[in-house]
């Protein structure tokens, strides 16, 4: 099940983040061959690091604010806000974990999962809490919501560029590995391969 999910996320990533032409550039492959090349995004990692410490503060502020304005809310918005806080907390734990693993270990499926959760869930929910006046937004709540939205939008942009860089890097590594394998073939094996190729064409 986990392998299927990883394959599905990888397929979506290849469509959304197609590798650039520079990934197959021989000059780029030569530069990679000369040493180790790390493509983890430092700005994204810094945003994730501060996000981990900021989210508990945001959640506590939201809970205190909800308690203070609970009687002023309609029944519908009481349910909506509680549901949003629960969903955002669960998603945030999964999202930040995937972001840390994907960025530090340079794994495309995990980083793509982090980016999709950020774009499709955290961003709309954060904007809903910030912009919907029917939720009776308190001044302190508005302040913490603005900071969270800045975090989320920044991570969406940085995550996009981090995934593109990682996809291009892995495509380059793949082509470099193929080139290295060809170099390791001995002259005798090359003659044997050539002889078999000519024999097949004569037949």
Automatic annotation (TrEMBL):
Membrane disposition: Multi-pass membrane protein
TM stretches of this protein: 46-68, 75-94, 114-131, 143-163
A GO CC term attached to the entry: membrane
InterPro entries tied to this protein: Uncharacterised_TM-17
A Pfam family this chain is assigned to: Transmemb_17
UniProt keyword Transmembrane, yes or no: yes
Keyword Nuclease in record: no
GO biological process per UniProt: non-motile cilium assembly
Keywords: Membrane, Transmembrane, Transmembrane helix
Subcellular location per the Swiss-Prot or TrEMBL entry: Membrane
PANTHER family per record: GEO07735P1-RELATED-RELATED, TMEM (HUMAN TRANSMEMBRANE PROTEIN) HOMOLOG
Protein name: Transmembrane protein 17
Organism: Paralvinella palmiformis
């Amino acid at each position: 099940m986990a392998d299927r999910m990883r394959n599905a996320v990888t397929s979506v990533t290849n469509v959304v983040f197609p590798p650039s032409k520079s990934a197959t550039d021989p000059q780029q492959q030569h530069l990679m061959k000369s040493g180790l090349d790390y493509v983890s995004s430092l700005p994204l990692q810094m945003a994730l690091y501060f996000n981990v410490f900021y989210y508990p503060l945001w959640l506590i502020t939201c809970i205190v604010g909800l308690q203070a304005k609970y009687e002023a809310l309609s029944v519908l918005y009481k349910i909506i806000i509680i549901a949003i806080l629960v969903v955002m907390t669960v998603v945030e734990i999964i999202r930040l974990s995937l972001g840390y693993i994907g960025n530090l270990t340079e794994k495309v499926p995990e980083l793509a999962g982090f980016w999709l959760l950020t774009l499709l869930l955290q961003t709309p929910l954060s904007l809903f809490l910030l912009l919907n006046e029917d939720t009776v937004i308190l001044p302190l709540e508005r302040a913490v919501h603005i900071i969270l939205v800045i975090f989320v939008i920044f991570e969406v942009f940085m995550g996009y560029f981090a995934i593109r860089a990682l996809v291009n890097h892995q495509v380059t590594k793949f082509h470099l590995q193929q080139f290295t394998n060809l170099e390791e073939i001995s002259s005798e094996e090359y003659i044997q391969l050539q002889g078999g190729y000519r024999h097949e064409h004569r037949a």
